[in-house]
UniProtKB/TrEMBL annotation:
Major localization listed first in the record, in broad terms: cytoplasm
HAMAP family attached to this UniProt entry: MetX_acyltransf (MF_00296)
Taxonomic source organism: Franzmannia pantelleriensis
Family to which this protein belongs: Belongs to the AB hydrolase superfamily. MetX family.
Site (Important for acyl-CoA specificity): R323
Name assigned to this protein: Homoserine O-succinyltransferase
Principal EC category: transferase
This protein's pathway: Amino-acid biosynthesis; L-methionine biosynthesis via de novo pathway; O-succinyl-L-homoserine from L-homoserine: step 1/1
Recorded catalytic activity of this chain's protein: L-homoserine + succinyl-CoA = O-succinyl-L-homoserine + CoA
One MF term in the entry's GO annotations: homoserine O-succinyltransferase activity
Binding, substrate: R226, D355
SUPFAM superfamilies xref list: alpha/beta-Hydrolases
GO biological process: homoserine metabolic process; methionine biosynthetic process
EC number: 2.3.1.46
């Protein structure tokens, strides 16, 4: 057996849940059947009261912690916070992390076969929403025998799912952790998403979304989309301290090849992403972000929209996050207070921008772990 750190969940194996009951979507279409890929960490207790659901962000997936093999160099995307003794302590909690509908990491999405046509779904895959995701997640919980989550936790787009859980299934969520998120996108954020989508859709190899049938991938569009997105995930301070105006060589070459280290970094990120993520999925995920606005059906009154929520909230923002600024988290916190809900809020001083929610910042860990420790004490969950 390979050796892993004592605070690692170690080797994990993805599982697949199949659903034959039709799922009616907000867009008016219905999925006759679908599959969700997920991972679990820790042990579900006899009372089935210690389950925690992890909701992923735009380019996330089910692999949140541990390793798929002894050779895997990087652990799951939230390994910094999931494991024995970590913020989400797998000695006490049973953690469920899934790849959402429309994803490209095993769950039913554009890269899956449409059972009605026999061809890949591609651009024909229906538009989905945060609300649709939460309904599918509730069905996964049913299949796992989990009536109520001890907590539902997520950052960025994952935080929006947490918020929707408190509205759609208030009786099935005991605590909500909303990190680096927003109750709705600003016009600027929608604009960034549209630039990313246009980069993909204008790629000559996009073929209106049927690129797989042309045995190609719109890599240039995906690369540009990721580069634009990555700029928004980092703060000016983080980019400055990491790259400054450093050149790759000692002299300027007075051309359009890569000269600055930050250019090299962005191109690398774009190239890597363009070979590992599906373009149609990226288009879908950005639209999910754009559409989320629970207050819209309540005349724009967020406090009124939050009326169904009944659990305590932890809301966390980061000082240099300009994608989802601290003011957007405070907007949520103030609405929760107006609605008479229980809420704890922390704005973490961090130089890392939006990406800070993925990192083990000491104060962030203290706040996060403190809240989850209270969750465990309330449920009388003991470590092994």
């Amino acid at each position: 057996m390979p050796e892993f750190a004592s605070d690692s969940v170690g080797l994990v194996t993805p599982q697949t849940a199949h659903f034959d009951a039709p799922l009616a979507l907000a867009c008016g279409r219905t999925l006759s059947n679908y599959a969700l890929v997920y991972e679990t960490y820790g042990t579900l207790n006899a009372e089935r009261s210690n389950a925690v659901l992890i909701c992923h962000a735009l380019s996330g997936h089910h692999h949140a912690a541990g390793y798929h093999s002894a050779e895997e160099r990087k652990p799951g995307w939230w390994d910094a916070h999931i494991g024995p003794g970590k913020s989400i302590d797998t000695d006490r909690f049973f953690v469920v992390s899934l790849n959402n509908l429309g994803g490209c990491h095993g769950s039913t999405g554009p890269t899956s076969v449409n059972p009605e046509s026999g061809r890949l779904w591609g651009p024909d895959f229906p538009m989905v929403t945060v609300e649709d995701w939460v309904h599918s997640q509730a069905r996964l919980a049913d299949q796992l025998g989990i009536e109520r989550f001890a907590a539902v936790v997520g950052g960025s787009l994952g935080g929006m799912q947490v918020l929707q859980w408190t509205l759609a299934y208030p009786e099935r969520i005991a605590n909500a952790v909303v990190i680096a998120a927003t109750p709705k996108l600003s016009a600027q954020n929608i604009a960034f998403n549209e630039v990313a989508r246009q980069a993909i859709r204008s790629d000559p190899e996009f073929f209106e979304g049927w690129y797989a049938e042309h045995d190609t991938v719109p890599k240039r569009g995906l690369k540009l989309a990721r580069m634009v997105g990555h700029i928004t995930y980092l703060s000016e301070d983080a980019m400055g301290s990491k790259f400054g105006r450093d050149l790759r060589s000692d002299d300027l070459n007075f051309g359009f090849d890569v000269e600055f280290q930050v250019e090299s970094y962005l191109r690398y990120q774009g190239d890597t992403f363009s070979t590992s993520f599906d373009a149609n999925t990226y288009l879908l995920m950005t639209k999910v972000l754009d559409y989320f606005d629970p207050a819209a059906s309540h005349g724009g009154d967020l406090a009124r929209a939050l009326a169904p929520a009944s659990c305590p909230f932890l809301v966390v923002s980061f000082s240099t996050d300009w994608r989802f600024t601290p003011s957007r988290s405070r907007e949520l916190v103030n609405a929760l207070i107006r609605a008479g809900k229980r809420v704890s809020y922390a704005n973490i001083d961090s130089p890392h921008g939006h990406d800070a929610f993925l990192l083990p910042e000491p104060r962030y860990r203290a706040v996060f772990a403190g809240f989850m420790d209270r969750v465990a004490r309330d449920l009388d969950l003991e470590g092994h």
